Amino acid sequence: MKIAIVGAGAMGSVYAGLLAGAGHEVWAIDRWAEHVEAIRERGLRVEGASGDRTVRIGATTDPAEAGEADLVVLATKAMDVSAAAGAARPLLGPETLVLSIQNGLGGPDAAAAVLGDERVVVGVAGGFGASLVAPGHVHHNGFELVRLGERSGPVTPRIESVAEVWRGAGFTVRTYDDVDRLVWEKLVCNVAFSGTCSVLGRTIGEVLADEHAWSVASRCAVEAHEVARALGIGLDFGDAVAHVRAFGEAIPGAKPSMLLDLEAGRPTEIDFINGAIPREGARAGVPAPFNETVSALVRALEQGTIDAVLEGLRVALHAHRVTLRRDVPGDYAFPVTVEALGAGVGSLRDERTVDLRTQPVVALLQGGEQVVQDDTRGAFDDPSFHRMLETYGGLAAQIVTPIFADDRLEAIISVHVLGEPRAWSADDTATCRRAAARVRGLL
Predict the structure, then answer these.
(1) Is 25 exposed, middle or buried (CB count within 10 Å of its CB: 0-12, 13-18, 19+)?
(2) Radius of gyration of the chain (CA)
(3) What per-residue confidence (pLDDT) applies to 330?
(4) What is this structure's pTM?
(5) Which of the four CATH numbers 3.10.520.10, 3.30.2270.10, 3.40.50.720, 2.60.40.1080 does domain 2-177 have?
(6) What does residue 74 show for φ and ψ, rounded to 5 degrees?
(7) How is 227-262 classified by DSSP, letter by letter?
(8) DSSP helix/strand/coil, 10
């Protein structure tokens, strides 16, 4: 079977490595160019509870390069599913099935809204505790369960066929006639540890070992269980506390992906996990104060510092450098005041040879325009602009977003890609605008 994994982060890389190890033709598709290049050069290494293997697979940033697949796995974060589904269209043939695997609520529905109801099925993976060690290298603490089902109705032959493919790669798989049960059984575990570990900065085992932390985590799980029951969703366990403790004891050293996102300055899935419980509880008339409070605290942490926002933006867009320039007193227009740098990338903090007041980009920013350049080399026929490209380390593509205060250009956020041009997407530009709004609130 030809399988395309869209979103080759930690979990997507585990899927890709094990499915390829079972003899399938697998393509990993991700925006992170360093990860893709490492897989191309050295193969994909998967180590942890399933063993330690390095496999050769296809890897690309462009779905069209992979071509039509038999199975497309959307393994992105829940908030990125719509964009990923749209990008996956070149992978779809007449019979291609799309398996949407996310934490929390709403991912498969978002995929179906883009690709159609009949094509999309649901998956939930639990008990893996996966994290990326380095480009081309993923580790997972556990190897528990993959749940599969249709978006509505009982298990079908196509679901059983997909389940056998995954079982053949070593995964433990259960198929479900009830998609709500499929999703909520994992969600109860997610809400226990995702938010609590993120607020405290602790592993799952550390939360289990601390009676105060565990009291919050277990109450989050109980609230989710109560909401599910009120909605008429029949779960396979009656004691939510015992259920989530057993789940956590299997992967004590793991950090939930939400905590990893916070540590990297990336947006989290809080609104799809803990934040979903008060929302669904309101529909059922069941309050969820613990989940509501934990969600509010995670959102406060997400705001973070300017440094964290810039680093999160750099990682999210797989850029080489992100700078914040501010209109501060001095003899240089808009100096770099904060920056996030990839490995080996030069700093611009002390760069003063380029007079930004002469740059055509700044004129556009002054007019309120976000400047998006896929290939800077042909952007402006302006000598000062091309001197800037070389001074900035061979700047090849950029997104430059203005920040205004009282109708005055107060700051500029620049995302830099060096070496080769980059085809920016609408999602990339929107991510920059969101980061600019967060920085504006911190200035």
Answers:
(1) middle
(2) 23
(3) 64
(4) 0.69
(5) 3.40.50.720
(6) -90, 105
(7) HHHHTT---S-S-HHHHHHHHHHTSTT---HHHHHH
(8) helix
CA 177 to CA 336: how far, in whole Å? 56
Q: Is the Cβ–Cβ distance between 44 and 13 less than 8 Å? A: yes
**Cβ–Cβ < 8 Å for 316, 262:** no
> What value does the mean pLDDT of the chain take?
91
Q: Whole-angstrom Cα distance, residue 229 to residue 285?
A: 12
Q: By three-state DSSP, how is residue 59 classified?
A: strand
213-225 burial string, b = 16+ CB within 10 Å, else e?
bbebbbbbbbbbb
What are 148-160's pLDDT values in tens digits?
A: 999 988 999 999 9
List residues bridging with 322 in a β-sheet. Answer: 340, 415
Alpha carbon separation from 249 to 130, 146, 246 (Å, rounded) = 15, 18, 5
How many other β-carbons are positioned within 10 Å of the β-carbon of residue 79?
A: 18
Task: Please answer whether residues 274 and 291 qualify as being in contact, where contact means their C-beta atoms are separated by less than 8 angstroms.
Answer: yes
CATH 1.10.1040.10-classified regions of the chain = 183-303
**Collapsed DSSP state (helix, strand, coil) of residue 370:** coil
Query: pLDDT digits over 114-143, tens only?
Result: 999 999 999 999 889 898 999 999 999 888
**Count of CB atoms situated within 10 Å of the CB of 171:** 22
Residue 329: pLDDT band (50, 70, 90) is low
pLDDT of residue 196: 97
Q: Tens digit of pLDDT for each residue in 243-261? A: 999 999 999 998 998 998 8
pLDDT reading at 321 higher than 90 = yes
pLDDT exceeds 80 at position 372: yes
CA 175 to chain centre: 26
Class of domain 183-303: mainly alpha
pLDDT of residue 146: 93
Phi, psi dihedral angles at 409 (to 5 degrees): -70, 110
pLDDT for res 331: 63
* Cα–Cα distances in angstroms (integers) from residue 66 to residues 4, 76, 92, 420, in the given order: 8, 18, 11, 21
- Domain 306-442, CATH 3.30.450.40 — does that match? yes
